[in-house]
Specification:
Blueprint lengths: L14 E4 L4 E3 L8 E5 L6 H19 L3 E6 L3 H11 L4 E4 L4 H5 L3 E6 L2 E6 L2 E5 L5 E5 L7 H15 L1
Parallel strand pairs: 3-4, 4-5
Antiparallel strand pairs: 1-2, 1-5, 3-8, 6-7, 8-9
């Protein structure tokens, strides 16, 4: 099992393809805060609400200098449809082998209606421009989460 990464830890490097098949690496955003949010599945009720909340908060998040990156186990085609359907202004990364989800210890055994399966536990990491996790939100509740992330980003900017 992967070590639990938490606030104060160096963020595990991300190198995944986005919805357009472009490689995205965390180190490409050196000097810039990153909101790295992991969600279970494109176009499902909770994940759609979370993505739309981040979409609606995107202008305010951008004002802090941060970029938003979503990560799920879905592939490029699913991400393209999800982005188009909800006009999402940020990249969604394809973690089809769960390598990055495992590195962040968000790939977990889940239980729904008595059926056990492996999937992503909704989690968000606020990473500063030096690549250090400043806040780790685990077992995220969707309602109000984008606002919590914005508050965390403003606090990071104040502290630097």
């Amino acid at each position: 099992m992967a070590k639990i990464v938490d606030a104060g830890d160096k963020a595990p490097d991300v190198s995944l393809m986005d919805q357009a098949g472009t490689a995205v690496r965390l180190k490409d955003f050196k000097g810039q805060p990153v909101v790295l949010y992991f969600y279970p599945k494109d176009d499902t009720p909770g994940c759609t609400k979370e993505a739309c909340d981040f979409r609606d908060a995107e202008a305010a998040i951008k004002k802090t200098g941060a970029v938003i990156l979503g990560v799920s186990l879905d592939g490029e085609t699913a991400h393209q449809k999800f982005i188009a359907k909800y006009k999402l202004p940020f990249s969604l990364l394809c973690d089809e082998g769960a390598k990055v989800s495992k590195a962040y210890a968000v790939y977990k055994e889940k239980n729904m209606y008595g059926r056990k399966y492996w999937g992503i536990e909704r989690s968000t990491f606020v990473i500063d421009g030096a690549g250090v996790i400043t806040v780790a939100f685990r077992k995220v509740k969707v309602d109000g989460h984008a606002k919590e992330v914005l508050v965390a980003l403003k606090a990071v900017n104040r502290d630097q």
